[in-house]
Amino acid sequence: MAAALLARFLPPDYRVELVESESIGTVGVGEATIPQIRHFNQALGIDEAEFLRETKGSFKLGIAFDGWRGEGHSYMHAFGPVGQSSGLIAFRHYWLRAKALGHAKDLAHYSPNEMAARNLRMPGPGGADLPYAYHFDASLYAAFLRHYAETRGALRTEGTIERVERDGETGDIAALVLDGDRRLEADFFIDCTGFRALLIEGAMGAGFDDWSNLLPCDRALAVPCASGGDFTPYTRAIARKAGWQWRIPLQHRIGNGYVFSSQFCSEADAADTLLANLDGSPDGDPRLLSFTTGKRRRQWIGNCLALGLAAGFMEPLESTSIHLVQSALARFLQLLPAGRSTPSTIDHFNAQADFEWSRVRDFLVLHYWANGREGDPFWDAMRALDLPAALQAKIDQWRDTGHTHREHEELFTEVAWFQVFAGQGVLANHYNPLADAMAEQDLLDFLASQERQLEQAAAAMPHHADTLGRLMARPAKRNTAA
Ligand SMILES: Cc1cc2nc3c(=O)[nH]c(=O)nc-3n(C[C@H](O)[C@H](O)[C@H](O)COP(=O)(O)OP(=O)(O)OC[C@H]3O[C@@H](n4cnc5c(N)ncnc54)[C@H](O)[C@@H]3O)c2cc1C
């Protein structure tokens, strides 16, 4: 992603070199995204049909959380709006009032995305304007972007970094020493070495903020399986005994994984759970990934910026990692130094990263803390978590007033918070009294007409598989990645 974006936007006198090691390879997971990925692809001028063909992608309208509130329950964090506002106040206040009166249905009935998603519908080009993201094969996307970057002048070097040399005076990185004694000098280095974090940690000693007290899942078992079940235009995050299982439908297979806490579940039990819950036959044995949740204390130091897993990792519950790469790149390009990076620029970037990451973390923690799975030791421990102050304040505000807000540029909107609060049964004790200005019958009609409109709109939409097939049959536009 970094090489592609830099090759696309840097002036011609800059040289971009991408060092990769085929013997090490990539992590090979990371298949669900959020709608911002479309801005990234659009900025690169990538044709959507070609992208979906090359990455075997599918559409995503949201994430279904199955069993988080209790076995058999499901709610969705769907992209886009939920319900219409009226007058000065947001829909959620009318919904809370209707709920208090015993009339409100689940948010599924008022969300355009969830209504379409649950019916396996996906509007085609020119149809309803629903915000969406993609599922894709991460390895194919990496290969696609590598090709894009190389055709725009990025030089790709195969090799293994064995040593990182620092300048004795400035402390900056001076060069990478590759196997075979090749030495690569550069003005600026972007560490994309994954969990190894060879540059930012290995050489620069960034330090790590360990968040595993808040998000204790530290393992994932991943296994693709043959297609089966519904071709859902949404990701599923299914609660299991000591964590949760993802289900990501692609064109050629389904991506599955069980994210769990090794404190509460053995690898063998996790593998049994995962393999017993697939829609098709598994493609090999599950692959184990171990991680510690948290972030580098400083993601930019001197002439080194860390991206992706080298910058830190939070579990993929809300599909945020690829977005955090994209967002860091966008912020980096805004602050691109003309010469040596100044401390004020670096400090500003790192403060933005601290804010962005900690708010994403809090949103993930909410899902766990608000679970209703009593009797499972893992879930019982999660309900007893000591919450970060900012998250506690959000919860208090919601409970006391029915209000949620998006602070500065935090990633998740007030509607996202609303859906998780409502979906997991964290109810507000009050709503804005302006909602009482609507007569009760008008309130019922207001909700019913929204639901009716959404049902009709969804029924008129084509199925996910048909929309995908039609789009991919379209010839690629000129000026694309190929
Ligand atoms: C279980 C799991 C599930 C995930 N699911 C999602 C998801 O659904 N959505 C999402 O947005 N994100 C997800 N992610 C995160 C996502 O996988 C990563 O953000 C993304 O793949 C980027 O990875 P990366 O490039 O940082 O690291 P990697 O893919 O590990 O790439 C590291 C690169 O560095 C190179 N390298 C390493 N060491 C050396 C060396 N010594 N010399 C030369 N080259 C070297 C490797 O060859 C490789 O090319 C998930 C992550 C995990 C662990």
UniProtKB/TrEMBL annotation:
Q: Per UniProt, which keywords does this protein have?
A: Plasmid
- Is S-adenosyl-L-methionine a UniProt keyword of this protein? no
**UniProt xrefs under Pfam families:** Trp_halogenase (PF04820)
Which Gene3D superfamilies does this entry report, sorted A to Z? FAD/NAD(P)-binding domain (3.50.50.60)
Q: What is this protein called?
A: Tryptophan 7-halogenase
Q: Which organism is it from?
A: Qipengyuania citrea
